[in-house]
Design a protein that fits this description.
By secondary structure, the chain is mostly helical. The chain contains 18 helices and no strands. It folds into 3 domains: about 5-110 and about 120-195, Hypothetical protein af1432, CATH 1.10.3210; about 215-330; about 330-395, no CATH class. Residues about 60-65 have low confidence and may be disordered. Belongs to the dGTPase family. Type 2 subfamily.
Length: about 400
């Protein structure tokens, strides 16, 4: 058993997830002497091939558009930093919070949300595609690193947090052996062997990871958009909370360069959002007076949240970024290419599964079948942006001889 576990658990709040009280793994494994179960979960995520591929998956800009723009990997690391810091400050389990933050985007296909939208449309007759369900599928089915089991065999708390970090997926308790059709395929496929209690909220650590994601992508997409020249400082005056911080930075550092101004703006925005989340969450915890993680799960509402004003401010910022960044014509042009790449690859693979790599073709069960469609979706979802472009060129450029 982890030697310092009792001392560490003494520092945790009563409603934190404790390694000694974990509901364990589907496949029993002996504990290790130098790491808690949640540390092992985090380490397994980091060492997975799915995590490495995030390096070349789009956040907003495709990998070749600039070395300084964020990818899914750098975004996940930034989310993990925020989640871990907040968990520590609130006396929650920072290892679990970090594991969830690092894993939360593993299920995204290439080309960001555009890739997911197209892949879901391609799969509309075959149970659809959802990146959260795909992350669960990766961690429980598709990662092959151990001789004794499929997936990474993560703890119940990590899998639960991954599934429910944005809230309950069903309105009431269900028979997990017969999950309802409304659930995405990845959840329906996995639930019969492990009830993740999808009708409750997730742990406080998982809720922190979810808001850390909001904080990271809204503030850092602001950073990338400014550096890419998609909008300028003056345009941010439309967003009151950003305008207030920007005026503060300009007043404090009137002669600062644009790069420094951007960094000061972004770091102060992060600090404000984190501080607001901790204050509001503290209020909710005080009212709830939880004495266990299950009290958080059964609270009937999020326990970790922004205050009303900051919540509205974050919505305003997201709306601005949607209009001025995610729908900018330069981003739209690459999104248009991405749509064709994903759609073309899917159509080819499902009608000619023999074009899939051998190990994937062996899983297929004939052209046009639901089983083959899921194999194709799994294969495409695992692609990086550059691999998808290369595959498309190999298969559709008739002048290209080398495959």
């Amino acid at each position: 058993m982890y030697d310092s576990l009792p001392r560490y658990e003494d520092t945790l709040a009563p409603y934190a997830c404790r390694p000694s009280e974990s509901r364990g793994r589907v496949f029993k494994e002996p504990e290790t002497p130098n790491r808690s179960c949640y540390q092992r979960d985090r380490d397994r995520v980091i060492h997975s091939s799915s995590f490495r591929r995030l390096k070349h998956k789009t956040q907003v800009f495709v990998y070749h558009e600039g070395d300084h723009f964020r990818t899914r990997l750098t975004h996940s690391l930034e989310v993990a930093q925020i989640a871990r810091s907040v968990c520590r400050s609130m006396h929650l389990n920072e290892d679990l919070g970090e594991a969830l933050a690092l894993a939360h985007d593993l299920g995204h296909p290439p080309f960001g949300h555009v890739g997911e939208t197209v892949l879901n449309e391609c799969m509309k007759d075959y149970d659809g595609f959802d990146h959260n369900a795909q992350a669960l599928r990766l961690l429980t089915r598709l990662e092959h690193r151990y001789a004794s089991f499929e997936g990474l065999n993560l703890t119940w708390e990590t899998l639960e947090g991954l599934a429910k970090h944005n809230g309950p997926l069903v309105d009431a308790a269900i028979d997990h052996k017969k999950p309802p059709a409304q659930l995405s395929f990845g959840f329906r496929d996995y639930l019969p062997e492990n009830d993740l209690e999808l009708h409750t909220y997730a742990s406080a650590e998982a809720q922190i990871a979810a808001l850390a994601d909001d904080i990271a992508y809204s503030s850092h997409d602001l950073d990338d958009g400014l550096r890419a020249g998609l909008f300028e400082f003056d345009e941010l005056k439309k967003i009151p909370v950003v305008a207030q911080v920007l005026d503060e930075v300009k007043w404090t550092y009137p002669n600062a360069s644009k790069d420094v101004m951007i960094h000061e703006l972004v770091r102060r925005m992060i600090n404000r959002m984190v501080a607001d989340m901790m204050v509001e969450s503290g209020r909710r915890i005080e009212r709830l007076a939880p004495t266990s993680p299950d009290d958080i799960r059964n609270a009937g509402q999020p326990t970790i949240a922004f205050g009303k004003d900051m919540g509205e401010a974050v919505k305003e910022l997201k709306s601005f970024l949607f209009e001025r960044m995610y729908r900018h014509y330069l981003v739209n042009r690459m999104a248009s290419k991405a749509k064709r790449v994903v759609s073309d690859l899917f159509d080819l693979y499902i009608t000619e599964p023999e074009c899939l790599p051998t190990e994937w073709n062996e899983r297929a069960q004939g052209a046009g079948t639901p089983e083959t469609a899921r194999v194709v979706a799994d294969f495409i979802a695992g692609m990086t942006d550059r691999f998808a472009f290369r595959e498309h060129a190999k298969l559709f450029d008739l002048n290209r001889v080398s495959l």
